[in-house]
Amino acid sequence: MTGALPTSPWPATLLLVGAGIVSAVQVGKAPAALQAVQTALAMPLSQAAWLLSAFGVVGAMFGIAIGLVADRLGARRALIAGLLLQGVASAAGAMAQGPVLLITSRVVEGVGFLGAIVAAPALIAHIARGRGASGPLGAWSTFMPVGMALILFASPCLLLYGWRALWWVGSAAALVFACAVALHAPHVAAARDNASTAALLRQTLLARGPICLLLLFMLYAGAWFALFGLLPVVLQDGLAPSPARANALTALAIGAGAVGNLLGGALVAHGARPSSALAWAFGASAVLALVVATAPLGPAWRFGLVVVFAVISGIVPPALFAEAPSQAPHPNAVGATLGMMMQGNNLGLVAGPPAAAALTAAGGWPALGAGVAAAALAAVAVAWWLLPRTERSLEAPWSRISHDHR
Q: Which of 331, 300, 315, 328 is nearest to 259 (CA)?
């Protein structure tokens, strides 16, 4: 049953963004505690690496499938289920005495994470329908950098109580938000029509819009994570004499992406065409990648440009989230389209770091910068030439805002 939607979408949006932030904390706790987990459980690096890659592998393999389940189950129930899975699996991981249970719990967390981050924006798009969903979806896109920065800042204090403290805090936060969503999120009916799951899957896989969204998020994530491989080198050049300072600087750089997310959300909400915002953001990111990798700069300046890169590239996710509902090939395939888009994000996450390592081994940082720039320029081409049902314009996003609000 569908209840009346709230007068303003923002209270529910902020609740759902909070659920996304809690989900991002589950991603960030593993790198923050990796060394402590290795020491406590005597895990070799080959096993410990799975704590980092479990989420990416789940997303790369099952994104669209989990999106289809969310469409059939209903976005609200899928979000609650995803948060409950994260909470229970994080608690199981906190009690693990060996690597098998801990890694298994991370895989289950990954399923819950993907369910939550596919369902939440679909729910936001529904409750903000007709009142401009671009702003709320732009706010949603801040969930990952905010959650990652939050756990990086909090981890030094939590690790004083051992690595399990991060898992217990993650569990408690996910379960609390599952209850909050169950009590306060608007009710939205699950999809009910004659379209079969197989037909929706086929339509989504073959539609140009979802394919473009997958490619764009894959190129964005691959370039972002590849370039941020430079960050440890910058920090080792004297900016981070202690691990706590390194964590703080890393959190600053990642958190800068949230500023870009808000900027992108504001641009789209005030009339910027998504294709134009995407093209300009990717183009500027290509230039910045080349400068960061090749210019003769000191470590502080290089780090500053990495922060600027995070802000500029942060415009991309809100533009993609805002575009996703209109690119769905069927009203009941919004979750599947978002799942396909997130599948691209995870493919980039999985492929970006190895590609960066290969480029660096072959030609050093100039080769890495060229590779990141090439990925960004390929994304410009996808956004400009392939994204359907979008006015093709390379005017600056802010120029249309000025024109529309005179």
A: 315
Residue corresponding to tokens 């399923």: 111
Q: What is the pLDDT of residue 238?
A: 61
pLDDT score recorded for residue 291: 86
- List, for the chain, all residue ranges whose pLDDT scores fall below the cut of 70: 1-6, 129-134, 188-195, 229-244, 246-247, 365, 386-406
Closest CA to 113 of 23, 211, 227, 9: 23
- Please tell me the predicted confidence (pLDDT) of residue 393: 46
Domains, the chain, with CATH or none? 1-192 (1.20.1250.20), 204-406 (1.20.1250.20)
* 258-268 pLDDT per residue, tens: 888 888 878 87
Distance CA 83, CA 89 (A): 10
